[in-house]
Amino acid sequence: MTSEELDLVATLYRNGVKPLQIQAAVAGQFPGCQPKLKDIYNYTSKLRNQELIGDTPMKVLENFLRANSFAYYTRENATNDKTEDIFFCHNKSHKMWRALPEVFLIDTTYNTNMYNWALVELSVWRRHQSHFVSPTCF
Predict the structure, then answer these.
(1) Can you tell me the distance from the alpha carbon of 138 to that of 60, in angstroms, rounded to the nearest whole number?
(2) Domain locations along the chain
(3) Which of 17, 33, 45, 70 would be 65's cystine partner, CB 3.0–4.6 Å?
């Protein structure tokens, strides 16, 4: 692919366009080019790795949450100062949760096991600093 085509791929990727749509856009804008989907995936992976240089994946996530005004809370391990737990949600969802904290909705976007069930692990803290973990399959 030419540098102009790669620039288009990078622009579309940074704007959240999916690889299949990127492939169609490149083919539409550059009629002589028929990029393979694997090439699109490889190039977007290269872009993603360039964004990670010098930062841990957790730091990248935290920067993303901060830049997009998500509400998030983290808990670090006292011995090694590494983040162990993170809770995040969109500000609108956070306001609804604060208004009625007894109700909690979980949306599982990705299926994670061979039975096509989504796995969610909840760690619930009680007022007396005790907690329980409830892994659940839906």
Answers:
(1) 29
(2) 3-52, 56-102, 106-138
(3) 70
Q: Tell me the per-residue pLDDT of 103-121, one tens digit each, with 9 for 90 and over.
A: 666 666 565 666 666 666 6
DSSP code at position 34: -
Look up the pTM and report it. 0.44
Beta bridge partners of 134: 122
Query: 3-state DSSP helix/strand/coil percent for the chain, to nearest 5?
Result: 45, 20, 40
Strand segments, DSSP code E, in 13-118 are: 71-76, 83-89
Picking from 116, 93, 118, 94, the residue whose alpha carbon sits closest to that of residue 108 is 118
- Strand spans (E) along the chain: 71-76, 83-89, 119-125, 131-137
